[in-house]
Amino acid sequence: MAWFVKDDVSRGRPSILNMIAEGQIIGPECDRAVALRREMSDLLAKGPPPLSPTGLNALRYELTNAIDDLRGNRILQEVIAIGASLHPRLVELALRGRGRWNGTGKWAPRLLGEIDTGLADRFDKAFQTLFTNGDVQLVIELVEAELAPHGGTLFGGDCRVASGSWRVI
Fold first, then answer.
1. 157 bridge partner residues
2. Measured distance CA(60)–CA(28) in Å, rounded
């Protein structure tokens, strides 16, 4: 279990932490369970570690690439596919960029609404417009606004260095 907790914390997505902190205690080890619940609650309250520069730049690059694709002449099916892959990455930047835990699926709009109802509304409107009629402009504007505090778009000049252990000479 320690590995799963550590992995959740490093990813900034506290699935197992929430399950432990919010779950119902069963079984004979109630004292241990209460202590574990308290530990997970403390970790949740502390928040995730900041995004690493490498992680942030990877998000910036992926989001930049997605809006570049949206700017192209695309059929609706392609726009929907791009939007579907872009949404969770943009939610991650919006949440983690504000020092908050990330969440996916149903948790994405809930967590966005917790930090800023206006932001959650902009997400809803932009993606509803994109998925309904293929209009990409609001999503592009939302991505650019979320990228701005983190250095803006990132395409040219993106450089990632592979770990020495992965290099083949």
1. 155
2. 48
CB 126, CB 142: distance < 8 Å: yes
Do the beta carbons of residue 41 and residue 23 sit within 8 Å? no
96: number of CA atoms within 13 Å, CB side?
Answer: 28
Mean pLDDT of 25-36: 90
Cα–Cα distances (Å) from 13 to 44, 52, 88, in that order, read: 10, 15, 12
Left (φ > 0), alpha (ψ -120 to 50) or beta: where does 26 sit?
beta
- Residue 155 per-residue DSSP state: B
Q: Are 15 and 23 a contacting pair, CB within 8 Å?
A: no
pLDDT of residue 8: 92
Q: What's the predicted TM-score (pTM) here?
A: 0.87
C-alpha angle with apex 60: 52 to 141, nearest 5 degrees?
135
Share of residues in the chain with pLDDT > 90 (%): 86
Query: Between 161 and 150, where is the model more confident?
Result: 150
